[in-house]
Write a structure and sequence with these properties.
Blueprint (H helix, E strand, L loop, with lengths): L4 H10 L11 H6 L10 E5 L4 H9 L4 E6 L3 H10 L4 E3 L2 H7 L6 E4 L6 H10 L3 E5 L6 H14 L3 E4 L6 H11 L6 E7 L24 H5 L37 H10 L1 H7 L6 E10 L9 E8 L8 E7 L21 E2 L11 H4 L12 H8 L5 E2 L5 E6 L3 E4 L7 E3 L20 H9 L9 H17 L8 E2 L4 E2 L3 H4 L18
Parallel strand pairs: 1-2, 1-4, 2-3, 4-5, 5-6, 7-10
Antiparallel strand pairs: 7-13, 8-9, 9-10, 11-12, 13-14, 14-15, 16-17
Helix pairs in contact: 6-7, 7-15, 8-11, 10-15
Length: 510
């Protein structure tokens, strides 16, 4: 049989894109309490409101929900009502110890600063873990969770749902097929933050709500007074100064807009261009709007420089956040829709705001894919279009351009007229049954989940270097072998978290 150009040129690269058996392999799972595919898993959640409620909703149709943990009764109330038979807890440590014989899998959907310790506690007790993106807040924790998954032999998944979508795989296969040649730049962007960032003053102390355990919410973080921001009226997100939503903007609790959305929007570039396997030459925040001593800025532009890898040349990756509209990218034809495309006012069409049952909240594969007829409807002179918020990415190659949406939706060449008679390359990558389904299958002895910690931790490691760069001036240089930022001692301290006394994190030998 003849060997195609893409197999000859990209064959060695492809091997690293498909998760190898290991953390989801059957022998390990049997040791951790293997369930056959026909049995239901008993799920628990650490963080049961908000995103945790969405993740529970994805698991509940086929599995059991037996225990719920949340430090905020008000935030978790809808889940408490929906899963009324589940035992309730405020402290995840108590839940994991008391329910250890009754739990198979755990969802971790807390603020970022608690992901590492909650996930490690669950894995130590032999529980499979689905942990929300960005997995952790520091590089050291990312390496710890990867090592912990291997040591304890559990199935894992990071909650970057677009990694399961068809368009993400199409993006990789189109690039490996040489459709746009050698990729030398990627531009990725988001309208986030939607929460406050760049504040410079902390309001006075307020009484702690009776529904909230503030000390447990702080967890590993340094103690500080609770403040509601001087109001008893929740903001547009149902929260106050720190919680339950605004924590993302604070250095001590979150990772800003980059940490929130890069694991989604940079998922396709990470898969297609093997970013986790490349050496980072440098990372720098090259533009910053609204800096703060304790929060991430209101908006920023961050540049990553990656070394060549195998047959792929050196690469520049630009991340933009805080945008009101899509960025102007040199080489993109005027008038082309990039990233998430618009959709019709009647609800039909191609944007991220549509097809949420496929590409959004449930993230079932295949997700939204390019459709030529649908695009012609959107381009009609009388089309009444609604434009989604600016999110997406553009790949710049020496032979062309490619764009895709927030979660890898509607992947297409630019200009889009190239797609009229275009046939997608034959699939090289395995397809996912959906992000939570992918995890459940791994828990029951199937293939490792597509974003298991062996995949997710290296992805998060390079992404988090950008989060650190947001807090320092100049380019950071990183030595992954030593896990060290070599040219900035203050930035280097941020590779590892501060852990408050009384919160036990048992390190795994790296």
């Amino acid at each position: 049989m003849a060997v195609s150009r893409r197999h000859f040129f990209y064959g060695s690269l492809l091997a690293g894109a498909v998760p190898a058996a290991g953390y989801g392999s059957t022998p390990n799972l049997k040791a951790a309490g293997y369930k056959s595919p026909n049995e239901k898993l008993n799920f628990a959640a650490i963080g049961s409101g908000g995103q945790g409620a969405s993740n529970l909703g994805a698991a509940a149709p086929t599995e059991n929900v037996v225990a719920l943990c949340d430090v905020d009764d008000r935030r978790a109330e809808p889940s408490f009502k929906r899963y009324e038979k589940a035992t309730r807890y405020k402290d995840f440590r108590q839940m994991l110890d008391k329910e250890k014989n009754n739990i198979d899998a755990v969802i971790v959907a807390t603020p970022d600063h608690m992901h590492g310790i909650a996930t490690m506690w669950a894995m130590e007790r032999g529980k499979h873990v689905y942990t929300q993106k960005p997995l952790v807040r520091t590089v050291w924790e990312a390496r710890q969770l990867r090592a912990g998954a291997k040591k304890y032999g559990v199935a894992t998944q990071m909650g970057n749902q677009g990694y399961s979508n068809e368009g993400t795989r199409q993006c990789a296969e189109m690039i490996w097929n040489g459709e746009i040649g050698n990729v030398t730049e990627v531009h990725a962007w988001s309208d986030r933050p939607l929460w406050p960032q760049g504040l410079t003053e902390i309001p006075k102390e307020d009484p702690i709500p009776s529904t909230l355990d503030w000390d447990l919410w702080l967890g590993v973080a340094e103690k500080r007074p609770f403040t509601a921001g001087g109001t008893t009226t929740p903001d547009r997100w149902g929260g106050f100064f720190y919680q339950p939503f605004n924590w993302r903007g604070f250095f001590d609790f979150g990772c800003g807009a980059l940490g929130d959305m890069a694991c989604h929007i940079l998922g396709a570039p990470n898969m297609a261009l093997h970013l986790s396997k490349r050496k980072i030459v440098g990372v720098e925040c090259i533009k910053k709007e609204g800096p703060s001593p304790f929060m991430f800025p209101k908006g920023s532009v961050t540049r990553y420089d990656f070394a060549p890898y195998e047959n792929m040349p050196a690469l520049k990756v630009f991340w933009y956040d805080g945008l009101k509209e899509n960025p102007k990218i040199e080489g993109v034809p005027a008038g082309e829709w990039i990233g998430d495309p618009p959709f019709l006012a009647n609800g039909q069409g191609g944007g991220r705001g549509q097809g949420r049952g496929q590409a959004g909240n449930n993230f079932r594969s295949p997700g939204r894919v390019f459709n030529w007829d649908e695009f012609q409807t959107l381009r009609a002179p009388d089309a009444k279009l609604r434009f989604p918020t600016p999110d997406g990415s553009v790949f710049i190659g020496d032979k062309g351009l490619l764009t895709t949406g927030t979660y890898g939706e509607v992947t297409r060449l630019l200009p889009v007229d190239k797609m009229k008679d275009y046939q997608m390359p034959a699939p090289l990558l395995t397809r996912s049954p959906g992000h939570m389904r992918d995890f459940i299958r791994a828990c029951k002895g199937g293939d490792p989940a597509c974003s298991n910690f062996d995949v997710a931790a290296p992805f998060v490691e390079w992404m988090l270097l950008g989060v650190i760069a947001l807090r320092h001036e100049g380019k950071l240089e990183y030595d992954p072998a030593k896990m060290q930022i070599t040219n900035n001692s203050e930035a280097n301290k941020l590779l590892k978290p501060m852990m408050r006394k009384g919160w036990d994190f048992h390190p795994v030998k790296l």
